[in-house]
């Protein structure tokens, strides 16, 4: 939803044949015998040449480009049940089920496009390029800490790929299909075993090296060293300190479940009990388990009441508990946090007015638990995963080609896949809600764990993101303001798309309708959903997945919605072509619309312009009439009460709220200004209408005076 995509046939800054390995050549070589491998020396010299060419390119030309593979399930079988295969026996573009290949890395790996690439040889000495996808980003785990020359791995169910710059390569899309072997593994051939003296370093020394890595904020290195310190520990104290330190490293790496587990493994001794409680509380906070976090901090403070870190954390968690219970947010503070890059907001999810239930014919949906009014906050949700990609180049930007869908996706989409894959690898339990989201015709396999690793299906992750992901601005307030200064940012008439994207698992449950009853908005990685109309308890929430253009045809709209399968066909879609022909017959069109909500949106702008014209011409009564008609095109119902006594104009009130987009608060503000001139006593009502509509669009009403300063004036 609102994620920036381009048709594959549209010109863009990449060439699929040269930049995407095997985009064309692979299909030509499928099934042929793969026996034209380079010698190791030629392979290595060619690899270095390619890397030098990439390094020589200007930074603006180094856009990370990758292609989505043909969907395929990950191997869920243990290594012991697979038969070995050699590269020389493999044919290009052919899967070999129930097989494995043993590889040794021969050169220090490099980042190549969206993968980690390394030269690797099999037991016969045949060298290929090993491409590992969906590995952690460089700023999270530097490539030197992922793998090194001499490391040995097993790749399950390998497939030999082909590319224009290198005859053959192994692409691994599922992170669980690569198993790295310990030096002592019996699977390693004797000639590959490292011949080094067994010099055992004690746990304290290893932990000290980990502490040095912490000072450099090299968290992946620190985590690895603390793991070694745990293995080398000979006393409970040595193990305790190593576990506590590794808990911190895992927290910094974004692995709160592992951080919590490390904290709970510490034996309960006076030396470490306070630290272990604090580490566990911090992990619980990152897992959004705020009540258990509060309890741990309270326990800690009962024995150490002056602990400044615990007191500060307790104050923070109390704010989260209030947000979660009452939906009361400090929006000014959220905006300050949203100025940072990435704009990650420290807030809790509020979802009390809604619940997930079965929706007839549409799978699962989100429903109100009580009666709500237009403008009410229904959901304020922290993103499950979020990747910021700014227009100024800040954040993560890449290009992903979906050849099967004939699309190019720009921005943070590829990084979002990797982020969620890594989350499922390190915290499978926290990923259950994501796995349960709609995946179209791609059926997920039951969760499993093999060879010590959760089985992670990256193709399932991509499919779920494609059907449930949201594009988002840094803030909807910023996008709303830009919509009036720059036409490309207009929220209506087709709607904008965004490079920044994320997954909000509750909001993703909201089904599509071309006549929505709620509106989404964003502040950083927080998505807010507000009611756009009054609703009874048990009403299903609906919003628009894809905003139709003003005169877009029904067929074009349905094609744009085809990714979501069979969606409910809104009557507004079918009315669009007829409206294009009758656009100029404004007065005749209104009574003929048959009450179809939203079918008259194409004529909202003319009525709005007429309202402004009459207001500037001091024809206030006509301005009020045109403003009311503009609102009626959105499905609003208005009631006009004749002037009483000395009143100069009728009193207009809203009796039903309906569709709300960026034009509605503007229309309200025009009516407010008109009343400000002739009947100031009605201004309070229209000020509240404007604030409420503004809050539906941007998520909050506190900053309405910044966009509409007239509301702050005396009247």
TrEMBL record:
Region (Disordered): 14-40
Listed InterPro entries: Gramillin-biosynth_MTr (IPR053209), SET_dom (IPR001214), SET_dom_sf (IPR046341), TPR-like_helical_dom_sf (IPR011990)
UniProt-recorded name of the protein: Related to TPR domain protein
SET domain mapped to chain residues: 352-546
Provenance organism: Cephalotrichum gorgonifer
